[in-house]
Amino acid sequence: MEIVTSTIKGQIVIPASIGKKFNIVKGTRVRVYEDGERILVEPVNEDPVASGRGMLKTGGKVLQALIADRSKEARPGIQKTGRNSGSSRNCGKRQR
Questions:
Q1: Which pLDDT does position 86 carry in this prediction?
Q2: Quick one: DSSP state of residue 63?
Q3: Which residues, other chains included, contact 41 with Cβ-Cβ below 8 Å and sequence gap of 6+?
Q4: Do residues 43 and 28 lie in contact, with contact meaning Cβ atoms separated by under 8 Å?
Q5: 19 CB-contact burial (10 Å; exposed 0-12 / middle 13-18 / buried 19+)
Q6: Whole-model pTM?
Q7: DSSP SS3 for 68
Q8: Which helix or strand (DSSP H or E) is residue 66 part of?
Q9: C-beta of residue 84 within 8 angstroms of C-beta of residue 78
Q10: CA dihedral angle for residue 77, residue 83, residue 89, residue 92, rounded to 10 degrees
Q11: How far apart are CA 92 and CA 44, in angstroms?
């Protein structure tokens, strides 16, 4: 925990270690609110999609697989294979 001093205007300086941890740089908007007897300051994520980009570090493999799968589905005459596809002629019958 670090202690900071407020100016006559009520301004405080966020310690560098906390600013780096939460990616707070010049111009970053923060939300200030009270919770009981405490004052809380938290950065505002302007674009949650942009802030989550690159989080999984797959190198685009997942996206390429999704695109390939969708293009296969879009081709006419191609049937999907799986549990629920195909005929149901053997439903309920024992396999020998």
A1: 52
A2: H
A3: 14, 30, 31, 32
A4: yes
A5: middle
A6: 0.45
A7: helix
A8: helix 61-74
A9: no
A10: -170
A11: 56
Burial of 43 (0-12, 13-18, 19+ CB in 10 A): middle
| Pair of tokens at residue 79 | 């049937």
Between CA 72 and CA 56 the distance in angstroms is: 25
67 φ/ψ sector (left φ>0, alpha ψ -120 to 50, else beta)? alpha
Which tens digits make up the pLDDT trace of 8-21?
999 999 999 999 99
Written as one letter, the residue type at 49 is V
Whether the predicted pLDDT of 80 surpasses 70? no
| Tokens 């200030």 -> residue | 32
**Structure token digits, residue 21:** 């941890």
